[in-house]
Amino acid sequence: MKKYHLFIDGMWKDAVLGKTFYSYNPSTGEAYAEIAEAGAEDVDIAVNAARNAFENSEWSNMTPSDRGRLLMKVANILRENIDRLATIESTDNGLPINETKYIAIPSMIDVLEFYAGLANKIQGSTLSSPSNRFNYTLKEPLGVVGAIVPWNFPLMLTMWKLAPALAAGNTIVIKPSEHTPISILEMVKLFQEAGIPDGVINVVPGFGKDAGNALVSHPGIDKIAFTGSTKTGQLIMQTASKNITEVSLELGGKSPNIVFEDANIEHAVNGAMFGIFFAQGQVCASGTRLFVQETIYDEFVNRFIEKAQQIRVGNPLDEGTQMGPQTSLDQLEKIEYYVNKGIDEGATLLLGGERHKNIQNGYYFTPTVFGDVTNDMTIAREEIFGPVLSIIRFKNEEEVIQQANDTLYGLAAGVWTSNLQRAHRMTQKLKAGTVYVNTFSMLDTVAPFGGMKQSGIGRELGIEALQMYTTTKHVWIDLNEDGFNWYGV
Ligand code: NAD
Question: How many A from CA of 61 to the centre of ligand 1?
Fold first, then answer.
């Protein structure tokens, strides 16, 4: 079995207490790698290494242009390793190889290239000042960033934090999910190969209650960048409040996807399928609540089910696979719990709803569709994070806006219509960080991504994300020749 270590100060180390844990291959259910498990002691060493690198290493003296060039060099090495990283990610997490090789890995390299290009474009401003003084601002790095990431897109969601943090000159300690630490450890090897100075990136695999909590409560951390569930986000805010540590939170969602009768039905069916079944439904922005106007409900549902039946579920490393296994057994059991809830509360199970019968091992679930769902049912209110769609009938625009916004979350929303005025009215009224029109679940490095309400605080990606990894310092220079005068004394 392959062994992995903590990555601290440029070295591969055992945990201080000698603990380890296993990573499971979700397509077989078998443990396939043993990883050193960080505890509070290791996190402390990692934060100190990151602090030292921030204050004293060649990193702290590197020009922004050189930083950008170094990050671009890493991006080039990552490009040469796309196939290998995609295979590692699909093995550890279960994402179909097409979704890692052609979507997740290339897009995370694009993110690194984008921020590498911005490293020497971070600038403050000269403020309007009277003639006897000079005021300006500096944009400075925060210091040591703690990044805590989930298991659904381990490399991509890490890079959303790592790239802007490094471009701005910070150092970082990353806590991967206990379910998927491998690809992140493999990726930092490539950063090291490119020449990233020791201590700039540190990785402390382990569990949330130990390593994660130690990172959030560490007084040497200047900012926590978190992606994960809303429940954990709440805990992190509480813990971070002790040291008034800045937090950005990318949390859960229950996104509405709304199909009006004037939409192109074929396109809407395809978009809604991608919106729910992409990455086995383990997408924070998933279009889990599909609102369909009553006049086209039956036709839409029939066409949707016909297509969803044809989804190829199988080994994630097989190029023909459209849906792989869920990432963990916990997740599989959670999905089963919600399916039973849906049935108990009176929704109509139209497709799936069970573990995959033809695949004996691994955490495979069938594409699942519920019809006749109402917005107050548990399956329409709570995040399932699996391939389970709730279809809800609606009458008109006013009613659907009210129901779409009637949720704790506000991450994404979709509208399918051929009416331009309606599209704009809807984009204005939907309370979500991203609104898609005639498409769903799209991402672009340049476009800020994040949530309203309990879906989070802050925006990742785009130029906007640099705000989260810099602080503003105001400088006031007195130009008076006769110096400072207080009450004429
Ligand atoms: P999770 O909240 O269980 O865990 C996320 C990370 O937090 C893991 O690394 C975990 O070890 C750590 N953690 C857990 N408890 C902690 C604690 N007390 N202190 C510090 N760290 C702790 O989430 P998950 O199950 O890994 O991921 C799924 C969730 O992530 C879903 O809710 C999904 O919507 C959300 N998500 C959001 C986005 C987004 O951009 N908004 C993207 C992907 C996933």
Answer: 34
